[in-house]
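Run: sequence + 2-acetamido-2-deoxy-beta-D-glucopyranose -> complex structure.
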Amino acid sequence: MKSLCVLLLDAILLASFVEDSETAGRHATWSKQFKNVLETHRFKTEGGSWTPDPSDLLGEYEVEPPVRDTNAYFMTNNNTVVTVQVGTTAALRCQVFDVAEHETVSWIRRRDHHLITVGANTYSNDERFQVTYSEKTQDWTLHVRYAQPHDAGVYECQLSAHPPIGVITTLNVIEAVAEIGGGPERYVQIGSSVQLTCTIKHFTEPPTYVFWYHAEHMINYDSNKRITVVNRLGESELRISQVTKADSGNYTCQPANARPAFVSLHIITGETPAAMQRASATEVQYRLSITLLSSLLALVAL
Ligand SMILES: *[C@@H]1O[C@H](CO)[C@@H](O)[C@H](O)[C@H]1NC(C)=O
Ligand SMILES: *[C@@H]1O[C@H](CO)[C@@H](O)[C@H](O)[C@H]1NC(C)=O
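>> structure
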């Protein structure tokens, strides 16, 4: 009974479709479709249950996906990755041709659906964001100045067509770090020379400068002729010849846009490293005897 009702309803629905269709050809197709539907129903209802399948009814007359009403097209590759170092400027490109007068190109941060720019205007309160448009290259580049780790994520350059379409860029922000070889403590004989090598890791752009500090003093351009700094790509070397007691203390390697590295320099007088080890061994003995003494005292007290 139930399926009969459904069948009847379908028949009415299809009948109205038939009425709507104008050309004879279409009419023929509909009739064929109608016959198919009836046959399917008969077949399926035999089992006692029938679930209407929309494709049975609509068939080849299914609604076509909406046509995007735009002539614009993107030249920037979709789903690209841009990697920058902390503190540098990230440039996310968006080249799109044949943008109509009424269309706009926007940049959106996917994480929070933050609308950053619309056309040439920046909507974000964050002043580090800026869009530049080049008429020559039809490029709407989003600049993120002083990029920070929290800027990492997915950005979309969107064209205001119906429905909208865009290209996606993933921004990675990495932090470069400095490292001084030879451990955090260095021991040097007085009068000898020492060489501290600072290597910068994970950099995308070599640092524009590397400053060396002795305690609070920048020593790159020190008048002291015993100190020299040699910079190579991603590496800086500090050399101190004929070290004196005054050279002891903390040394910092501070590259532009990278986490700094420290080393503590100890100047040894007369003693060899072996002598130093003996000294520390004596200290252990001394501590042990203190412990023994206090244990003895504790026993006496009992
Ligand atoms: C870019 O890729 C996304 C999926 O990652 C897609 O939704 C979008 O339509 C693509 N854009 C273009 C212009 O093809
Ligand atoms: C050297 O640097 C370390 C770590 O930054 C710090 O703990 C120490 O106090 C510094 N020593 C001197 C003499 O500045």
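>> summary
The pocket of 2-acetamido-2-deoxy-beta-D-glucopyranose (ligand 2) is lined by residues 215, 249-250, 262, 264 (CB under 6 Å). The helical segments are 2-20, 24-45, 54-58, 273-301.
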